[in-house]
Amino acid sequence: MLKVRSSRFVVLFILLLLGVFASGNVLYAQRANVRLSHVSIDSLVNYVRSIHPKTYFISDGLDQANYTVDAPREKILESILSELKNKGYAITRFDGGIYILRTVGFATELPMGYFSSGEQLQRDTSIYLDQSGYKFTFANKVYEIGESNSGVTGKVYLSGYITDVATGEPLVGISILEASTGAYTQSDASGFYRILLPVGEHLLRFTGYSLEDLDLNVLLHDRGTLDVTMKEKVFALKGAVITSEGMVNHRSSRMGVERVRVENIKKVPAVFGEADVIKVIMTLPGVKSVGEASGGFNVRGGANDQNLILFNEGTIYNPNHLFGIFSAFNTDIVSDVELFKSSIPAEYGGRISSVLDIRGREGNSKKMAGSVGLGVLTSRFHLEGPFKKEKTTFILGGRTTYSDWILKVLPKNSEYSNGAASFNDLNAQVSHRFNQKNSLHFSGYYSRDRFSFTADTTYRYHNANFSVKWRNHFSDGHSLVLSTGYDSYGYKVEDTHNDWSSFSLSSNIRQGYLKLRFQSLVAAKHTFSYGLNSTMYNVEPGNRLPYGDSSAIEPRRLTTERALETSLFFNDTYQPTDRLSFDFGLRLSGFLSLNTRKFYGTPELRISGKYSFLPNLSFKAGFNSMAQYIHKISNTVAISPTDTWKLADADIGPQRGWQAAAGLYWTIFDHRVDLSLEGYYKRMRDYPDYKSGAILVMNENLAQELISTMGKAYGVELMVKKPGGKLNGWISYTYSRSMLREMEDRGLQTINNGEWYNAPHDKPHDLKLVGNYKFTHRYSISVNLDYSTGRPVTIPVAKYLYGGGYRLYYSERNGYRIPDYFRLDLAINIEPSHYLRQLSHLSVTFGVYNVTGRKNPYSVFYTRNSSGSVNGNMLCVFAVPIPYLNLNLKF
Fold first, then answer.
1. Which of 410, 383, 412, 380 is nearest to 396 (CA)?
2. Is residue 658 predicted with pLDDT exceeding 80?
3. Do the Cβ atoms of 158 and 225 come closer than 8 Å?
């Protein structure tokens, strides 16, 4: 008979096929032959089932290949096996049975030394399989760590690295749970885990998103290491699909933390089909944007400069390409994305709203691999592999655009028809593991944008950073991470409208940093970390220089600002019982303006706690305070290429804020669906708003144009998430308000008479839906729905005669709103075929951005007609459906 069962790599499991096939739904070339022509694997198995009723198999996830078999009836079995082998399956005969598996062969014997003890067993934690050369962890054995006669009692440390079986890359955020004691930990950014366990027998469960769960039996005699490899879930069954997301939510005391997997990012429909980290972040509850194709994002009522954006430890000041249409991050290079909205760990600081930590991949440690992508506006590539297998790896990626054609197709009489727009970015990382305890990582990133709407004005801006990171696990329960690097951001505007007035305007910010973090596992459920961060800032707020020999512009350079920010931090995570856990953090930040010799110091408190009512129901609460010593100066609500940055000094102090939050977290339907409900209240002070008519560019006395405001924000966030299965995705709803009020009384010039007014990014209602449905292993459809209240604006409401001319009278600051925002996107995804021996795999994505063609306003402006009347107009960025086609080739 033929029997098919699910396993981590198993797609088909055939027990011995006996006898001669009888007639079925096949074609006979001649009486003694059986011919199956272009049949699916389902039909192939069903043919055998028609003869052997006791045949069981699961059809989900089987490949879409067509099979042709033509052979004498007595040889039909060998012909079927030969055809499957040609399609990339591994065939193993064992104990009278035939095993047909995906990806790897079947281990028919235990490794040498399996029943031994001592160091040999400690090293022998994996099995090598002939068919593919992959090394994977064998679940059905007992891993004996240490000498059986060691005489050690009490608790000892078990540690190791968790890597991907196919690529050898570290797996981040893998949950490790010990069944009897409830001891729990997670793998860090290097895939390293450490857990404190009593000497004796243990059952460890390793779980991770989109990975097969792994249960390991461990017999612990002494401290030791156990490296674990995990493999991707080949297909999702109709039954339970359990991932680590729900477990992390319930076991961690932190709240307001969102982890987004790269697999999910690539499924969400995006403008022109380019997978976008920032756009997916904006589908999460509490995260908003001010409009279509706008740069930056707002978190829980904060401004867009109040978010710390990190990529491989470096700070990214402008995370956008092409006016905000694309983000500055190549998803082929990204490994993990984590957003902290509250309960921000004490190691992070410098911004008062959120932290977006993006980590890059280290590269395939087993073989060379890569990909090429081609879209309507962009193309990209990446290449990765080992310099030395499982020791030194590299990954390189880049993107570019050919978007000039958009402006070229405009009418010739359009003022923008001679414009141009382009960007490119480049990522590189090299990682080397010296031994089990030490690794070194070099990372570099550069992005550049250039655009011009007219032939005489060109805008340029760039991001760049370089970092070196050393990880060391120097003793049992103790580790350190030391990193240093350099970040740069700058813009330049060149105006050549008239030779005599041509000029270039530029601004730059450069910073060098040092970060040191120690972590100690004090007890099985008690972790303590501490360290320091130090950053040296160098800001050029503005340089205006003549452009060309004929220009009469006088050179002018604003004073360069320099400052040093240093922080000490401590973080203590303790779980006294299985139901109760706490996280206490303290950050002592200090900032010294080297220009004005002004010093600011701020103690920043981070506290959170969790209580579990049930294994699948928990309550969390937290409080955190933050300080921010650098401000973005702009009179636009979105990140603009001409934004400048201002350091705190004697005239402009730091922004400070605090947030209190509480929430319920519930996992239902056998861990298939996660529900969360969070509420928060936030206060801010010394947020720099600007006076009416303020001059913000090339202003040496900028403090006179700014006003200090206090802010408040509050809201409720609801999220329902189904992370696995054929149907997966999430839906979120947020109700929130964000208000500002001037802190000083300036008489009639006081904004809104000193009362609270809407912040520029205040959008009370926000509904997001992200969904993906897999029809088969290759074909799926994705949907993205976005609705939000229109943002507030200030508009002229009357005109009056003054001094012989008409003047406009404006409404209260942000007293009106533009129309609500609504957008629906759809995409069809065709995954590559699963022939394992193919040299390359092609995937195709076809979609439509803004399916309904809704004219979503970005801003409102006014024009005067021939009769002198003033008319309001709406500016829409994408007012029609935008179809796109993306091709991706992996090799």
1. 383
2. yes
3. yes
161 in the same domain as 68: no
Q: Confirm whether 638 is domain-assigned.
A: yes
122-126, 679-683, 820-824, 871-875: lowest mean pLDDT where? 122-126
pLDDT at 545: 92
Amino acid at the residue 552: A
**Are 456 and 550 in the same domain?**
yes
Within a 10 A sphere around the Cβ of 870, how many other Cβ atoms? 12
Number of domains in the chain: 3
Q: What pTM does this model have?
A: 0.81
Question: Are 234 and 778 contacting, i.e. CB atoms less than 8 angstroms apart?
Answer: no
Q: Say if residue 372's pLDDT is above 90.
A: yes
Structure tokens at 783: 């949907």
Q: Kindly state whether residues 729 and 769 are assigned to the same domain.
A: yes
Q: Kindly state whether residue 106 falls inside one of the protein's structural domains.
A: no
Summarised one tens digit per residue, pLDDT across range 36-67 is 777 777 677 666 655 545 444 444 445 666 77
What domain range is 733 assigned to? Answer: 257-890
Distance CA 580, CA 182 (A): 12
Q: Are 369 and 220 in the same domain? A: no
Residue with the two structure tokens 């801010």 = 684
Tell me if 243 is assigned to some domain: no
**Phi-psi region for residue 669, left (φ > 0), alpha (ψ -120 to 50) or beta?**
left
* pLDDT in the model for residue 835: 59
**Nearest C-alpha neighbor of 673 from the set 258, 207, 246, 175:** 246
What pLDDT, on the 0 to 100 scale, is given for residue 763? Answer: 94
Distance between CA atoms of residues 854 and 108, nearest Å: 61
Q: Could you please report the per-residue DSSP string of 364-387?
A: -SSS-EEEEEE-SSEEEEEEEEEE
Q: Is residue 517 domain-shared with residue 601, that is, in the same domain?
A: yes
Report pLDDT for 833: 67
Same structural domain, 48 and 152: no
At 586 the pLDDT is 97
Backbone angles phi, psi at 83, to 5 degrees: -65, -45
> And the tokens for 267?
């499924």
